[in-house]
């Protein structure tokens, strides 16, 4: 289904389902939310739900991806270069995203959340690296984007577990070291 040419009614229904799911996730744990709960909250039938999503896990993934992209404000990030300001902005978005999820998604879904965060970060970092190195798609840049995505995600997890300093200060401690690695010349 192409987002750019999709009927506005389809987009509204999809958003209604996602909003209903978010509303329910504030009241119940994910494992306790049923398709019936979602369809009742959205005032739609099951067939409509399954037209838009495979199951509640697919819905969870789509909701998390969309919320993360909103937190990352991808339009702003896409226009930025890979510099200190971009790292701080990305790190703050990730830590805010994780804080907002702490009440809604419980431990059983950390792997899904982690994967979604890393995948989105990998895409963002790869685009930024391409701008910085002005090269065609390059395997070294792809690997660097993966390393950066895992590193930033790991730093956000560590900050959440053990840090009592603001996230901006936390990430600024390591940015000079990260930037040295980003400065590599493409092979």
Comma- or semicolon-separated keywords:
about 190 residues; mainly alpha; 10 helices; about 0% strand
The proportion of residues forming helix, as a percent range, comes to: over 70%
Based on CA atoms alone, the radius of gyration comes out at 19 Å
- CA-based shape: globular
Ends distance: 38 Å
Count of DSSP-assigned helices: 10
Please provide the ordered H/E string of secondary-structure elements.
Answer: HHHHHHHHHH
Class derived from helix and strand content? mainly alpha
- Major β-sheet annotation: none
Strand-residue fraction? Answer: under 5%
Average per-residue pLDDT, rounded, comes to: 82
| β-strand number | 0
Q: List unreliable stretches of 5+ residues.
A: none
Briefly say what this structure is:
The protein has 187 residues and is mainly α. It contains 10 helices and no strands. The longest helix has 24 residues.
Structure overview:
The chain is an all-alpha fold. The protein has helices at 8-25, 35-42, 46-52, 56-72, 74-79, 84-101, 110-133, 139-162, 167-172, 175-182. Helix 4 packs antiparallel against helix 6 (84-101), helix 4 crosses helix 7 (110-133) and helix 7 crosses helix 8 (139-162). 24% of the residues are buried.
């Amino acid at each position: 289904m192409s987002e750019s040419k999709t009927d506005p009614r389809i987009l509204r229904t999809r958003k209604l389902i996602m909003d209903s799911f978010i509303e329910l996730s504030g009241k119940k744990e994910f494992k306790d939310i049923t398709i019936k709960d979602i369809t009742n909250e959205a005032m739609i039938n099951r067939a409509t739900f399954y037209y838009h999503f495979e199951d509640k896990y697919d819905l969870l993934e789509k909701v998390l991806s969309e919320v993360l992209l909103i937190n990352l404000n991808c339009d702003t990030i896409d226009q930025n270069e890979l510099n200190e300001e971009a790292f701080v902005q990305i790190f703050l978005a990730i830590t805010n995203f994780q804080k907002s999820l702490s009440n809604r998604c419980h431990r059983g879904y950390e792997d899904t959340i982690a994967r979604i965060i890393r995948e989105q970060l990998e895409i963002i970092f790869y685009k930024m690296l391409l701008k910085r190195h002005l090269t065609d798609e390059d395997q070294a840049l792809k690997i660097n984007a993966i390393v950066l995505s895992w590193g930033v995600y790991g730093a956000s997890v560590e900050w959440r577990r053990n840090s009592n300093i603001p996230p901006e200060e936390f990430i600024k401690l390591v940015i000079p070291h990260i930037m040295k690695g980003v400065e590599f010349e493409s092979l």
